[in-house]
Design a protein that fits this description.
Layout (H helix, E strand, L loop, with lengths): L4 H11 L3 H10 L4 H10 L5 H4 L6 E9 L2 E9 L2 H4 L2 H14 L6 H6 L9 H12 L3 E10 L3 E8 L6 E2 L1 E8 L4 H18 L11 H17 L4 H19 L14 H12 L4 E9 L11 H9 L3
Antiparallel strand pairs: 1-2, 1-5, 2-3, 4-6, 6-7
Helix pairs in contact: 1-2, 2-3, 6-8, 9-12, 10-11
Length: 308
């Protein structure tokens, strides 16, 4: 019998298994939904759905570069142990390379054909969940490109080449020497990994972030009891200091501990042989922003025993 897209969708939603495997299961069981679920379970695939509710905040950040473009991805797992699994490492490396083919678009990346298989990236992760036994998910992906220049990448304390817990991309535009430019880019990427700036310059900070900081400083100035004109000067001074702390170009360069990053880039133009413009950067730190579930084992035991 012919298997419809609706049947495949229903089975995928029920089991969390990839579309190709769902279609195969329905084909093998003549469209019987319950039998298809059992078919998947006997092959160790449907159990992946049971893992989907678990918090995945570990895993790896991966980077890949080609020509004047580079991509960065984060693939999460439940435990750090899985990050040392060679199969998982291979998946993250492959996914990072595939991100280059879809301009870093996360939705397109999940649907991209996984090399050497007849299914996509999402389905490959589902199969890995079944085999490795932990929930995993493709969390985010970005690609940076320049028309002329370099996109430098840096992975802090890599577990293997291109994979670690903190990854950075830096896009530098210049017609100058690419080797010298790449060296500068790596140094700036190391700085970003260590200091975690919020934006290239104050002009690129989100308006709501700037407004929130200004509001806090204003309240502090008012509470200090200073006259209005002095309070306003206090706010402006604190805002300037805030911009210096969170904006990349105005931060003190960790490489020499003295220069501003913007000044260090300007000074590097002599070695590069042409003007340099830092157009963008991206920093992924594994698990940032994910609310991790804290298990209270003592409370759990007490609840089971009926003492709470």
């Amino acid at each position: 019998m012919a298997i419809t897209a609706g049947q495949v969708k229903e089975l995928r939603e029920a089991t969390g298994v990839g579309m190709m495997d769902c279609k195969k299961a329905l084909t093998e069981t003549n469209g019987d939904m319950e039998a298809a679920v059992d078919w998947l379970r006997t092959r160790g695939l449907a159990k992946a759905a049971k893992k989907a509710g678990r918090t995945a905040s570990e895993g790896l950040v991966g980077v890949a570069a080609e020509g004047t473009s580079a991509a960065i991805v984060e693939v999460n797992s439940e435990t750090d142990f899985v990050a040392r699994n060679e199969q998982f490492q291979g998946i993250v490396s492959t996914v990072a390379k595939l991100a280059l083919t879809v301009d870093g678009d996360i939705d397109a990346l999940g649907k991209a054909a996984y090399p050497g298989t007849d299914h996509d990236v999402s389905a490959e992760l589902t199969e890995a969940i079944a085999k490795i036994g932990e929930n995993m998910n493709l969390r985010r992906s970005t690609m940076l490109s320049v028309s002329d220049g370099v996109v430098s990448s840096y992975v802090h304390s890599p577990i293997v080449e291109g994979l670690g817990k903190i990854g950075v991309l830096v896009a530098l535009e210049s017609t100058g020497d690419k080797a010298a430019l790449g060296g500068l880019g790596r140094q700036v990427a190391m700085h970003i990994a260590a200091i975690a700036p919020l934006a290239v310059s104050s002009d690129e900070l989100p308006a709501d972030v700037v407004a929130r900081e200004r509001s806090v400083f204003k309240e502090q100035a008012i509470e200090s009891g200073k006259p209005a004109e002095i309070a306003e000067k206090m706010v402006e001074g604190r805002m300037r200091k805030y911009f210096e702390e969170v904006c990349l170009l105005s931060q003190t360069f960790v490489i020499d501990g003295e220069s501003k990053v913007g000044d260090a880039i300007k000074a590097a133009e002599k070695d590069v042989g042409a003007p340099i413009k830092l157009t963008s950067f991206v920093r992924f730190a594994l698990g940032e922003g994910i609310e991790k579930q804290e298990d209270d084992f003592a409370a759990e035991v007490a609840a089971v025993a009926g003492t709470r």
